[in-house]
Every structure is written in C-alpha cells, then in structure tokens.
Amino acid sequence: MTATTRLANPESPSGSVSSVKSFNTAKPIQGAPERKPRYRSTPAPYLFVAPFVLLFVVFMLAPMVVAIYQSFFTVKRSGLGFTGGRQTLFAGISNYLTAFHDHEFMTSFLRVLMFGVIQVPIMIGLSLVFALLIDSTLVKFKKTAQIIVFLPYSVPVVVAAIMWGFLYQPGVSPIVKGLKSIGVTVSFLSPQTVLWSVGNVTTWCWVGVNMVIIFAGLQSIPQDIYEAARIDGAGEFRIAWSIKIPMVMPSLMLTVLFSIIGTIQLFNEPSVLQSITGNVTAKYTPAMAVVNVTSQQNNQNLGAAMAVITALITLVLSLIVSAIQQAAAKKEARS
Amino acid sequence: MRFAAHRITRVLAASGVVAALVMTSACGTGSSTGGSSTSDSGGKVELTFSGWVPNIEKAVDLWNQKNPNIQVKFTRVASDAQLNFGTQIDAGSAPDIIQMDQYKFPNLVIDQQVQDISQYVKDTKSDFIDSAWNVVTYGGNQYAVPQDSGPVAMMYRKDLFEQYGIEVPKTWDEYVAAAKKLHEANPDVYIAQFSPNEEEMFVQDIYQAGGSYLDSDGEKWKVTINDKKTTAKVAERWQELFDGGLLKTEQMWTPEYWSDVNAGKIATIIRASWFPVLLQENAPDLSGKWAVAPTPSDSGDGPYANTGGSVDAVTTLCKHPAEAAKFITWLNSDPESLKILISEGGLFPAAKAGYDLDELNQASDYFGGQKVNDVYIAAAKNVISKGKMGPELATASTSMRDELTKVSNGEQTFAQALDNDAAILKKAIKSKGLEVE
Fold first, then answer.
1. Distance (Å) from the C-alpha of residue B296 to the closest C-alpha of chain A?
2. Which of A60, A80, A173, A263 to mutate to test the interface with B (most CBs of B within 10 A)?
3. Fewer CB near the terminus (10 Å): N or C of chain B?
4. Do B75 and B102 meet the contact criterion of CB atoms below 8 Å apart?
5. Which of these CATH numbers, 3.30.360.10, 3.40.50.300, 3.40.50.720, 3.40.190.10, describes B152-305+372-431?
6. CA distance A294 to chain B (A)
7. Burial A200-210, CB ≥16 within 10 A → b, else e
8. Mind listing the pLDDT tens digit for each residue in A56-105?
9. Whole-prediction pTM value?
10. Domain annotation covers residue A50
C-alpha cells in the first residue's frame, strides 16, 4: 500500500514541503481502530465556507448560468436594421450549430490540440529534468539554479510575448541575423512555424512553475527509500527513473492537467504575436475566437455558445487525463 | 484520502476552467460605472461624455465656461473601450455622449443604441466635408456628428527620388514604373511596404477608386468590396507590385517596420493625415528627407481617399438630446474648439472651418519646411464618397487582415482576398438577421 507515502499533496505544493516531510511515516499504522466521524449540527462549518461559497456563486456559477442561458438565444433584426428594433428570441441550439459549422473555430481546436500534444510533453519534460537535477546530489548552487529556472514565471506572459516578438522579427532579431550570418535562414513567423514560436514563449514562461510543483513532490519522498535503493546498489539515474519519477507521478499528472487546460485557453501569447505577424489569425485559438465573436462581431449569444463548447471540451479532456491517472495509480497499487 | 484529494482537485480544476471560459463571454453583461444625464429644477443640464482625443478636456472646459446651463463632464477612456459602449448602453451605464470609430459605429445605429439627432444637426451639413457627413447619415437621418477625418496623401523620400533621378509619381502607372526603377537602382529600396495587418493601406486604394465595403438600395445591404468595376484595377496593381517583389512584406508598427523606414528601405508611405507626426516621432533622424505629395491617381489629379475618423454620438440613455447635439456640434465645428482639438489633440477635423485655421497648417521642419496639411486639406476637399457605412465593418476589416496574410504567403491573389472577405462580410450581416444580397 503505497498510497500514503505517495501523497504528494499537489494542492499546495510550495507551502507543504516541510509539513509533508515531518509526516513521513513510511508505513501506515496497521490495525489502528477506525473512528467514525461524528457530525454535529453546528453553524460553524457553514460560516467558515460561506465566504468561498458566496464568491464562488457570484463570480463563478452565476456567470456560467448566465452564459449558458444566453447561448440559447439570438438577437433578430430586420431589413437594413435602422428600423424595426431588435428582438431577443429563443434560438434553441442554433448558436451551437453555427459554432460547429464555423470552420475557423473548429480548426482552432485542432490547432491547440496539436500544440498541446507537442508543447505540453516538452514543457513538462523540461520541468521534470530541471526538478530532478536540482533535487539530485549532482548539482551545485541549487538555490540559484532554481531561481534562474523559476524567474521567467515572474515576467507577465504579455511582456514575455512582446520580448520574444523582438527576437522573432527578422529586421531586428539578433537570432535571425546571427543565424543568417552563418548561412541559416529561419523564419519564426511563417504560417508553419509561428505556432511553435508561440509554444516557445509558453514553455519559457511556464517551465519554472511546473518545475516547482514537481520539485515539491520530490521533496516529499522519504529519504529512507533512497537509502534502501543505494544499499541495493542503485545509482542516481536508477533512483531517478525507478523511484523519483513514479513517486512524483501525481504532481506530474497535475502539471499535465493544468497545462492542457492552459493550452485550450491559449490567448495572451498568440494575441501579442498577432501584432507582428498576420499568420496568427483572428480566430487562431478557441479563446481568441470567443473574444472575436463577442466583442468584434458583437454577438454575445454566439460567443456564449462557443465558450460553453470550449469549456465542455476542456472538461472532457480534463476528465480523460484524470481517468488515465487513476487507472495508472490503481494498476500500480495492485502490483 | 488520496483519491478524495484528487477528486477535489479535479472538480475544482474542471469547474474553474468552465467558469473562467464562460466568464470570458459573460463578463460583457456586467455593469460598470457610468453616468446618466440629470437635470435639476433650475433647468441646468448635466451631460456625461467619454472619448479618447488627447487634451479634449480643455475644449470641454471652454464649453462649460460659456454654457453654465449645459455642463459636460468628460471621462477619458482608451479607444479599445469603445467596444464596450454597446453593452454599457444595454446595461444603462453608458455616458450620454460617446466617441466612436466610424467603422464600429454602424453596429450601434443598427442596434438602436444611439439617438437619431437629425432634427438638431441637419442644418449643419454644409459645415462638414461630404465624406464625413456620409458616415453619420443612415437611411437619410443623422445619428452622430463627425469629429475627425483621415484624408490620404503620399509621404515620399525626396532625397531618394532625387538621388536616383526618378520623378515623383502623379499617376498610378508612374507609381508602378517608379517602383521598378527604384528597386533596380537599389535592390534594398522598395516603393512601399505591404502589411497585412494594416489592411486599410490596401482598402484605401479601393475607396479612391470609388469602391466601398457596402452599399444599399434602401432595402437590402449589398456587399461591394469585391465589385470588379471598382476593385479589379486596384487588385491588379497590388498584385503586380507584389509579384514583382517591389513591396517589402512586413507588419506595420513593428520594430522591424520602423527599422526599415529608418534604414531608408521604404521610399513612400501612402497614409492618412495622422501619419506624418508618427513618422516624425519614429524616424527623427530622417528630418528634411521626407516630403508630402498628393496620392497618385488615375487622372493624376484626384480624387482621393478618406479613411475616416471618429464620430460623437448621443446614446439612447441621454435625456437631453437637444443639448447634447448642441454641444457636439460646437465641439466639432466651432473654430474656438477646433483650435484646441487641432493643436493639442492632433486632430484633422471633419469640419471645413478647421481647414482655414493656422493651427492646422503650419510649416514642418521635418518635412523640409513644407506645409504638409496643404496637401491633406486639398485631398479632403476632393474625396470620392460613394458607398455606405454599414454593419459588421470591424469583422470585415479583421478578416481582410487574415485574407491579406494569405496573399503575403502566396496562397491567393488580392482579387481572391476580396472575394473571400466579401463572403465573410455577407455571412456576418446575415447572421445579424439583416437583409443582404
């Protein structure tokens, strides 16, 4: 039963490091009497959760309900539009059909999906490698290294995208010029490459924070397991491969989950790069398409439907990732 | 406990996602602070006004001094905020008077969020240039007062044309010939840049040729942006320049663009009246090397394009449209106000009175002592104004950028870009429930 030791406490990765360490009883106490929790009806717990529930309802649930409601309506006008007024009519699922028939909106999902399939593994892989390196006994100046890797996270994504934008533009980029001087012509902003230029910005921004989450997971692994492994003759690589990676799997899956969600919501980086290249189109990502339809075309009902579709697709993907994670955990628990 | 913890994570993550995404669209329905006109028993009227012209506060203060009974309170907003005005009007939180870009304005007229102010302003028609009056007139009625205007002229590198012994082009044929000669004389020099993100530099040539995005016969909208009669020649010319490698393809306003301008790779910039000052700011070292000439035309002597500007409109929330109309008419056509807007706001007015003011037309050291606005004023007075402002023009210009990007990638021609954009515009208008052919 590895469940207790593998509890990496992914909800509060940075704050829980020390407390998790002190909890490190490698084996659960066998045969401890099971206590049934007793519930008494006091108002205290409700008062404690009230602030959260209130804010959650007002700022999360209510807007969701409004958006879902809006998505079933449409505004009708007539003639040239200058006379006759406008009516809001029930439209059934017609907004959803319009959204599904919007070729560019659907393409944007394929685009972020492709982005996710390639960028997320690279980013999480890098985060894992950095976390393992900093956690290993091989690296010196650990704190400095950790801060350097984490630093880009403190730069707002928009600022990071503007900065990288400079490095992508052929006329001003030292990278493009440098490569040209050795005979290599690159274009970071062509239709084929711009998505990966966006991915580069995203990776640069988020590697650090993912590393910290994974690193916190590594910190919670009890040292005696390493000792046991070393006695059995395992080297650093073996320990990393056979102990560390499996034991930080919950943290790893959490970062994957968050990255997938972030990928579908991709907005800031491509929006900024849009100003330097037309190859980031108006509906480049689902979130950009929603904003385009809502504010540019002024069609809030269609925008609401598209947002709901985006949310549902995100939900499904999140559930799939969670299901894979649990299946893997169960399989391991059995073995 | 482990599984419970994960379930919570999962539920929180999932619901957070849904909420965050859904809020993107729903937040538009929230209300923000705004004013509404109030009037006290003494007959004093208070109006609220939002816009983004620099230093317009000074003009408003002047009005308030002179009109104690019609007090205007100005709130500065960023120009992007104009996209929220429609929602604010629905929510009852919009100001009485709003500044709107002329291309984004028609959607408000169609959604009946601004008032028909014809009865108060129709007599001022002759105070404004025709092309500006055209953009506030829908179905024969006026829904706003034109604020500024964007007649087009050509900035050119006088020194380069002299150096290579090339005449400054007056007609489009001469322009294409000059493009070839310049590029032959120096392969680093291009007659102009082609920027898909600045689609208006292409569309303004269509305006000049008498084209427009839309027209209407009074019953239906008609998409005319791919009308061969007006656009074929323009599309062919751009195609010839592009295929000949005579245009430097790059996005406008980027560091790369300004770097090329400063390096002398761009020989002409055909753009509206607000551009010279930006050129001066972004390429200060080129002082004395630029001059301004009329845009080339088929005849060699106009007509010219007007890319337009902003309008001031009275929202449906305003309870005192007569006073509001009086104020915006004064603001945009009285010489006293125009002086402030021109010299401190950098505005090129839509009112003819502004064209006689010394403030508008001063010799510029940067342009070698030339009175730059002489050229722009002459252009403003000789604008072809056919076609109409209509719904979904913001959509059309956004998609035009995407279509021109495909041109720049060699995936389609300029003519195809116009056809595709026309189809998108037509669909957008239809989806509003309007009649379109």
1. 27
2. A80
3. N
4. no
5. 3.40.190.10
6. 6
7. bbbbbbbbbbb
8. 999 999 999 999 999 999 988 888 887 777 788 898 999 999 999 999 99
9. 0.80
10. no
